[in-house]
């Protein structure tokens, strides 16, 4: 491990807003935040720029960035502490283990920001049904899942997946900036999003909920084993 990474790992050990593989947190997040405000997760949060941005915009909600890489979490956690954003925290764990840390109906919303599109292995994509199956074990009924990506492949895959699953779609924007829709939460830009825009890439956004009848691992997905979630899942940040 490089010296800079080691310093960051040592730092987050002391940060009150970072929990690393904690025990007995499921059902206890309201106690952690000291309120009963709705909880939003940012999955594969990287440096946590979106969690921090959402926390700034919505002080009446709680935000938890989830990622396995502590040296990345360090950036957002430090910023949140410096700005006194007590509604922003970070959970260091694999996305595949997310159900260990939340109970049914404990989460009101999920954001997935520029995740790795896994072009060669679609079953690792964070909008694959086996991940949706995990999310439904902690989301409130009707909770929204928001995907922001520069990957046309992931965007198309997600549209196909939610159509097959009969997921209600709340927003579908094929070009956020081209349609002047970058307002509110969509106006938050990470370091990598700024790079993508400078390269002239199109940014896509989809907001949807899970089907009332539950996620079905059938059809093209029936051979996937939902217990074998890859630990390497990460975002590009």
Secondary structure elements and pairings:
Elements lengths: L2 H10 L5 E3 L8 H5 L5 E5 L5 H9 L4 E6 L2 H13 L5 E5 L14 E7 L15 H7 L3 E11 L2 H13 L4 E5 L17 H8 L5 E6 L28
Parallel strand pairs: 1-4, 2-3, 2-5, 3-4, 5-6
Antiparallel strand pairs: 6-8, 7-8
Helix pairs in contact: 1-4
Which tags fit this structure?
237 residues, alpha/beta, Rossmann fold, 8-stranded mixed beta sheet, 7 helices, globular
Instruction: Name the poorly predicted regions.
Output: 223-227
CATH A-level architecture: 3-Layer(aba) Sandwich
Order of helices and strands: HEHEHEHEEHEHEHE
What is the class in the CATH system?
Alpha Beta
**Mean pLDDT value:** 92
- Distance from N terminus to C terminus (CA atoms, Å) equals 18 Å
Write structural notes for this entry.
By secondary structure, the chain is an alpha/beta fold. The chain has one domain (3-221): 3-Layer(aba) Sandwich (Rossmann fold). Helices cover 27% and strands 20% of the residues. The chain is built from 7 helices and 8 strands; from the N terminus they run H-E-H-E-H-E-H-E-E-H-E-H-E-H-E. It has helices spanning 3-12, 29-33, 49-57, 70-82, 129-135, 152-164, 191-198; strands at residues 18-20, 39-43, 62-67, 88-92, 107-113, 139-149, 169-173, 204-209. Strands 1-4-3-2-5-6-8-7 form an 8-stranded mixed sheet, with helices on both faces. Helix 3 (49-57) links the parallel strand 2 (39-43) and strand 3. Helix 1 packs across helix 4. The chain starts with a helix and ends in a 28-residue tail after the last strand.
